[in-house]
Amino acid sequence: MAKQTLGLELKQQQKLSPLQIQTIKLIELPVQELEQRIRKELEDNPVLDEDTAPRDESREAEDQPKDISLDEYKEEDQIPSYKLRVNNYGKDDDSRSQFSTFSVKESFTQSLMDQLGYKNLDEHERAVAAFIIGSLESNGYLRRSIDNLVDDMAFRANIETDEEEVQRMLKVIQEFEPVGVGARDLQECLALQLKNKKPSPANQLALTIVEKYFEEFKNRHFSKIISKLGVTEDEFKAAMVKITKLNPSPGGQIDDSYTDQAQQIVPDFVLDYVNGNMELSMPRFSVPELRINKKYADMLMEAAGSGSTREQKEAATFVKKKMDSAKWFVEAIKQRHNTLESTMKAILDYQHDYFVDGDESCLKPMVLKDIAEKTGFDISTISRVVNSKYIETHFGIFPLKYFFSEGLENKDGEEVSTRELKKVLKELVDNEDTRNPLTDDQLVVEMEKRGYKVARRTIAKYRDILNIPKARLRKTL
Predict the structure, then answer these.
(1) Taking the domains of the chain in order of start, what are their residue ranges?
(2) pLDDT tens digits, residue range 64-86?
(3) Which long-range CB contacts under 8 A does 25-30 form with residues at least 24 apart?
(4) Helices 233-244 + 222-229 axis angle, to 10
(5) pTM higher than 0.85 for the full model?
(6) CB neighbours of 28 closer than 8 A, spacing ≥ 6?
(7) Is the CATH code 3.40.630.30 the one for domain 407-474?
(8) By Cβ atoms counted within 10 A, which residue in 53, 111, 227, 397 is the most buried?
(9) Are the C-beta atoms of residues 248 and 214 closer than 8 Å to each other?
């Protein structure tokens, strides 16, 4: 029998400070959501004030009491003091004061979040569902495992959940439009769409084929399916028509499904190219400036003095907590601004030739790690900055994700963007003879002719990303 012993093990864990938590959350927000977040903080924290009116510095010095510095308060935990007034994005010049927003198609994620708002869920369930939505790929699929989602929610969002609840919330999301969203793979995606259709013999047969004979269906072993199901060729063809009309990439069709819905996207960055120089700005728009409310600061000063009553001390404790929260929030906004600005400048530097005139051939391969190394930030921080942020340039408006792609070498040993390779691959398939489509091996040869060294497995990977079926599935009579 093995001997049992009792031991004590010490583990070192990194605990994020309130300021770090605030900063991480704010970095993820695009400028429109930042404004909403600040408005909410202004409502919830009476210590914070919005400073929207232009200020006359000289008059303020004469007629107005100065803002009380947080340095005046001695705190046991030695929390660093911060300035009370923050210009979140610097002053707007005249050319930005009338800045126009840009109408774009409703984003895939926003569409799902809007639909989530109509569901009768409690706050915790809604948070879990929102995290799942944020984890979906652009094509609408959920490629991450349920247990990984559970762990990630606990680590990144401080949401305690379990696999059962995540599965339940995923089922809710799978009821959303476009039908098929939230599927883990193509089989589930097609099945979700067929289950949503009006019952009919052809639809029911199509669902049976997808659910029970998907491998045979993928490999086009149609005679086997007909034999096993005992159906006629005409019945099978009718079911196949239903399947071929399904959407294998529900997320990619959001613009077609929501053509009448639009939202105003406000770029987080504006890039001007003037006399050969790039000028980057981060317009404030309607994001308010913040400062500490002097009335509550005075209350704290008075309560902290000698002879304070119990009620005053209790009030001081309450205000002290609000003061700390306000400080962390104000500083987090400053750090958000600095982090976004440093990241965007690093991207501009890395992709300088591209930003001159928007020539896509000048877009160099770039991954999150490249920008993390240039800025000194973690890759996770760069990912948060890039997510849901836009830049307006003199040649269009782009999400920051657009500028990131991996790279491969061409036959001359030069590194080229995978975006360029995907474009060439799609052109080859679009122009092929559909009666004799190009196999992956033939596509490798054709890519080689055009100067791109691409392995067969890479071709297969890009086909999958572009939702291009295998050659035998592209063949027509």
Answers:
(1) 18-51+77-101+266-404, 106-178, 186-246, 407-474
(2) 333 333 333 333 333 333 323 33
(3) 25/332, 26/332, 26/333, 26/336, 27/336, 27/339, 27/340, 27/381, 27/384, 27/385, 28/384, 28/387, 28/388, 29/336, 29/388, 30/266, 30/268, 30/388, 30/389, 30/390
(4) 120
(5) no
(6) 384, 387, 388
(7) no
(8) 111
(9) no
